[in-house]
Amino acid sequence: MMREKNVPNGCIYQKKAVPLQAEYYAFNKNCFGMKTIFIIQALLCMALCVSAQDTISSNNQANTTQSSDSLCFVVVERMPEFPGGQQAMFQFVAENIKYPVIAQQHGIQGRAICQFIIEKDGRVNDVVIVRSTGDAALDKEAIRIIESMPAWIPGMQKGKPVRVKYTLPINFRLGPGDDKKSVAPSNGSTPPPPAGQSQQTNINRSVPQFPGGTSKLNEYVKANIRYPKAAYDRGIRGKTVVEFLVEADGTISDVKVLKSATFKSLDDEAIRLVKSMPKWLPALSNGEPIAKKTTLPLGFGVK
Question: Could you report the per-residue pLDDT of 236-255, keeping only the tens digit for each?
Fold first, then answer.
C-alpha cells in the first residue's frame, strides 16, 4: 500500500466507490476512533444534501409544468383561425350580431376592441373590452357575439397547440334606414391603442347622445318616469315617440309628441320626462357642436 499525504503514520487507506460517487478512506484499527465518527457524520450530511436537491428539483419540475400549462402567447408559428377562415367569421358576425335597438334608434355607432384567449382546444375564453365604443349596450353586444363563437382552430407552436391571446375589433355602423355591422380581424401581433387613445380622431357625431350612452339613458328613464294613475288604473298601455331639439350647448328645447300613445296623460308624462333630462352631448360637425333634432320612444306598460 502507498502512503497518502496528511494520513497519520501507521494508517493504511483504500479508495472505494459508493453510490453517491464520493470517495472515503477506510482506516485500519489503529486510526478508527474519532476519524470513523467524523466520516459517518460527513456521509449523513451528504445524504441530506442529495435528498434536499431531489426535493428542489421535483418542485422546480412541477412549477415548470404549471407555468407551461398557463402560458399564453401573442404571436405563434401558426395563429388561431376561425373555422372556415376570415370570410366565415365575417359571415358569422353579420348573421348573428344584434344591433341594440335603442342605439340604432339614436344613431349611436362605435368600435369595440375585444381581447380574448383561444385555448388549446379552440374554446374562446376570457373576453374583455380593451377599448370601449363609449356605449355600454354596444360593448355588451360585442362581448356576446364573441362568446357565442364556435371553437376555433387553436394556435400552434413547435407542433403543439398553445393558448393565444387574440384581438378583434367589432364595428357598429349605421346606414340610411338600415343597420350595417362589420368586423375587422386582427392577427394578434399589433396590440390595440392604449386606453383613451384612438387611431383616428372622431370629429363627427351624427346625432346627439345622452351622457353615458344608452344604458345611462335607460337608467334615467326607469328612475324618473311616472306612470299616470288614471292610465295605470285602467290598464292603458302605449308608446309615445317624442321629438326634441338638442341645442349646441346640450340643452333640450322644442319638445313635442311625434307619435301619440293615444292617451293624453301618457303623452304629457313623456314630454315632462324629456324636459327634465340633463344636458345631452350635442351633435358634432367637423368637431364643432351643432343644434340637431332627435327622437326618443317611451313605452308605458302595465305589469
Answer: 888 889 999 999 999 999 99
